[in-house]
Amino acid sequence: MTMAAAARALASERRVKILEWLKDPAAHFRPQVDGELFKDGVCGLLIAEKLGVSQPTASEHRRMLSQAGLLQTKRIEQWTFYKRDESRIKALKGLITRDL
């Protein structure tokens, strides 16, 4: 993860919202049929639904967060689930406080 990639990912209010919601998924998302919200992550469809955007738009937001190393992905059957990568987020916080 580079600070530049993380900064690009965090430049969108929607992507920041996704990270906020994933911090406490049970408080922000309805129950899922497959996958456990905390253990497996949140289904990409639920993230798109919560954002109020199309699936391709939500996919682009998730892609940027994943490329920046801020999200982990997990496949269960045909679904992809997303959760925060807490160790990478902690490392990013360290980079920011050290470098700025």
Task: Describe the overall structure.
- The chain is of the alpha+beta class.
- It has six helices and three strands.
- The protein has helices at 3-9, 13-23, 25-28, 44-51, 55-67, 86-99, and strands at residues 42-43, 71-76, 79-84.
- A three-stranded antiparallel beta sheet has the order 1-3-2.
- The longest helix has 14 residues, at 86-99.
Highlighted features:
100 residues
Name the quaternary structure.
Answer: single chain
What proportion strand?
A: 5-15%
Q: Secondary-structure element order, as H and E?
A: HHHEHHEEH
Gyration radius over CA: 13 Å
What strand line-up does the widest sheet have?
A: 1-3-2
What's the helix count? 6
Principal-axis shape: globular
Overall pLDDT: 91
Q: Major sheet: size, sense and barrel closure?
A: 3 strands, antiparallel
Calculate the terminal CA-CA distance, rounded to whole Å.
17 Å
The structure class reads alpha+beta
Helical content band: 55-70%
- Number of separate strands: 3
Quick rundown:
This protein has helices at residues 3-9, 13-23, 25-28, 44-51, 55-67, 86-99; strands spanning 42-43, 71-76, 79-84.
